[in-house]
Amino acid sequence: MRIVLTVVGLSLLEEWLNRDVVGLVEKLAKDDKALLPSSVRIDVLPQQLTDMREHMKRIKQDKRPPTTEQADYSWQVRRQPVLAAVTEIIRAVWRADWSAEAELRRVSAERIRREHAPAELASLSLLDPKLKPEDQVWLLYSETCAGAFCSAILAEVLRNPGNGSTLCDGGVTVRPPQMLAGVQIDNPKRLKEVGLESWASVLETAWRTLRETDDKVLLNITGGYKGLAPLGTLLAFGLGSPGRPIEVIYLYEESDQLLSLPGSDLVYFDLAIFDRFAKNWDEMPAEGLPWPDTSDVLTGSFVDQVVKKRPDMLTIAEGRLQLTVTGHLLLAVWHARQAAGRARAPQTDVE
């Protein structure tokens, strides 16, 4: 079994939907293998797509946190029936033959399928072996309504790819899409204080779900904002373990192969400093502490061994002692491991 954590971006809205979808449907309609259902009507599709794009603009402008329903496909289809047609078009892309165009362009049919699909599906299609029903895909969307919307469509395609699909070998087990609280690009402070913790928690949950030695956890960072990819990679490395690494995969759009960054025993996060000063870390508020520490909240050994020696983890800004991004990331890894019982901190500080 493989658990493939897949970060969902907005390629479905920002790239796929803005292409010549009508032209794509005209091609698919000529391909017997595409099995494009009659519900996809070329005469009404242009207006449907125009309405859909306007709907997308409104969704992207919505700054409220998404609700659980917004990641539910049936809920979305009741409000935007054209979604059913969009879903069928994406399914048909993976069923179509494409051999004539592939020969003309001297590329593989699979390359053409990936070109006509959202980035998340394109990357998942390159897994070797192909996704199977016993595999699990966890779709992780950012704290945006647009992310929830895209997740709903991707989940539906993966669950029911249809006969003849080269996307995966049968319907895949897809968990209800999950929001990563705090993961967005508009509020860096919330990303550091909340987003890294929620991301680490999901990775830890996936790791604990493993039952057999051959089970694997993969983090697919192809979708989503690329500036967050390094943070996700570091969290995956930190939450893997010797013999049970979390592999990071990525598909560059011009490539025919996944880039794989397997976790390694050589990538080691030393979290002993958190175990030793557990009380200090637990009592440090998200906004930091007034500095200098005139109230003696922190132990002397913490000041000497952490504050003075770990500028990678702590910084002093605007009169407060605050965690750096690295500090927040390491703390998120430690918290996730603590919650799972993978490490046990001492009850008191060591002086």
Key terms for this structure?
351 residues; alpha/beta; Rossmann fold; 2 domains; seven-stranded mixed β-sheet; 11% strand; elongated
Task: Provide an overview of this structure.
There is one protein chain. The protein is α/β, with parallel strands linked by helices. The chain folds into 2 domains: 2-261, 3-Layer(aba) Sandwich (Rossmann fold); 272-332, no CATH class. The protein is built from 15 helices and 10 strands. It has helices spanning 11-14, 21-29, 45-61, 73-79, 82-95, 99-105, 109-115, 119-124, 145-159, 188-209, 229-239, 272-276, 278-283, 300-307, 325-339, and strands at residues 2-8, 136-141, 173-174, 178-179, 216-220, 246-250, 259-261, 289-290, 314-317, 320-323. The strands form 2 sheets. Strands 1, 2, 3, 4, 5, 6 and 7 form a 7-stranded mixed sheet that branches. A 3-stranded antiparallel sheet has the order 8-10-9. The longest helix has 22 residues, at 188-209. The chain is elongated and about 75 Å long. The protein starts with a strand and ends in a 12-residue tail after the last helix.
DSSP, total strands:
10
Mean pLDDT: 90
CATH architecture identity of the largest domain: 3-Layer(aba) Sandwich
- What fraction of the residues are assigned to beta strands by DSSP? 5-15%
CATH superfamily membership of the largest domain: Hypothetical protein VC1899 like domain (Restriction endonuclease-like)
Strand-and-helix sequence, N→C?
Answer: EHHHHHHHHEHEEHEHEEHHEHEEH
Quote the distance from N terminus to C terminus.
46 Å
Q: Ranges with pLDDT <50 over ≥5 residues?
A: 344-351
- Using the coordinates shown, work out and report the CATH topology of the largest domain: Rossmann fold
Form type = elongated
Please identify the top-level CATH class of the largest domain: Alpha Beta
Q: Can you tell me the number of structural domains?
A: 2
